[in-house]
From TrEMBL:
A single GO molecular function term of this UniProt record: kinase activity
Presence of keyword Ribonucleoprotein: no
Keywords, sorted A to Z: Carbohydrate metabolism, Kinase, Transferase, Xylose metabolism
Top-rank taxon: Bacteria
PROSITE patterns the UniProt entry points to: FGGY_KINASES_2
Lineage, uppermost ranks: Bacteria, Bacillati, Actinomycetota, Actinomycetes, Micrococcales
Protein name, entry field: FGGY-family carbohydrate kinase
Amino acid sequence: MSMRCTLGVDIGTSSSKGVLVAADGTLLASATQQHDVDRPRTGWVEMDGRIWWSEFVSLARELLETVPHATVEGVGVSGMGPCVLLCDGDDEPVRPAILYGVDTRASAQIGRMNDELGLDEIARVGGSQLTSQAGGPKIAWVADEEPEAWARARRLYMPASWLARKLTGAYVLDHQSASQVTPLYDVEGEAWHDPWWVQYAAPVEAPPLAWAGDVAGLVTGEAAALTGLAAGTPVIVGTIDAWTEAVSVGAHEVGDLMLMYGTTMFLVATGDETLRTPSMWTTVGAFPGTRNLAGGLSTSGALTAWLAQLTAADYPQLLAEAAESGPGARGLVTLPYFAGERTPIQDPDARGVIAGLTLEHGRGDLYRSALEATALGVRHNVETMRAAGADLRRIVAVGGGTQGELWMQIVSDATGLVQEVPEITIGASFGAAFLAAGAIARREGAPVPDITEWNPAARTITPDPAVVGVYDTLFERYLRLYEGSKGVVHELAAEQRSGA
């Protein structure tokens, strides 16, 4: 007997994940493909975009073999972003995709755009000032630095739109992703800003725009033969993983803050008005009529993974020793800027700092301090959002890091926030499957699924009032440590870039 379901696939920084989800929200099967990004130079983070499609094909086939009675009625796609994958007229990548804010190569282009367009005008049109997260300067970087590749560039893709193209032949980008190709998208007008597109992105064809849950097209015969999906299956447009992840836990309503624990950490606050602040990212939401104020740490899970590799210890060991270390890590303060930092300091030349080390400190103290560093980074973002006018009524946590109770408790203790953890935290792939289910329901005139029924809250993490004072003091030192060390750190970053 066949089972109606949707397929959701998300292309992440360190892996791609796929799920099959039944019509009632039951998770039938999941699969993962690990991959690495390329870091050919300091500040460069890129990836061969062709891997995104090959991993989709592999995941789809694995899932369909795992659940042979599944009838996939819709496909959801999602991926890291904003990314810049430029392709020629035959959809062959002209160079590897340049990834989101962890790639900091376009500093010169940011400076030039600021001079040519003006800071106020960029914020008025694009919603945000230009940072390493912005897609526009990365497009300009290819034009400036790789003229042979630029001469062949005709189309712009991100992971979700690349999968939609491969599956259906449609060339389309969702509004949310487009709003992060700053400054080439008009946030209030919800359209490409044509004068600046012509100035910085011609001869690339601006992708037609749609919303994340809209149907991009139907699976072609060629894609069906490769993936095992039925020809004619609807595929949604999709969007960036953090926003799809917010959908997966129902954290996309006005007043919600989604906190995503992953290789990097992401925060998305949803409201009904456009909030602007120089140190955060203003975007449109995944759905019409919503606006987001977003932020992101450049390292979170990546930092803990680095420490695990460095110490040759497994995570249970490190977590046990970190718990024993206690709040404040026995007198350590760490800045988590090991890959520069995105929000709210917007400093690609920031670097990691561990202050207070003695010969008595052990790996558990270091691991504890790393967890606390990411928590203090979250607090810095939350306080900046609130200062900009964000009304944060509900916090929902998601991502692989929610499996770690200690990490989540430290974040609640450091921020004073109660975190709601949903039953299913598999992330963006689940959200993509949900969006696909909604698209199918609308096409059939059926009731649209409710994410609170698909994925109800499972538990809450409450701050421990006994340690509030410890983290208040630690946060003040965290801020002072950055200001006091950045002069030396910037000199070191310049040497690293030059290969000295």
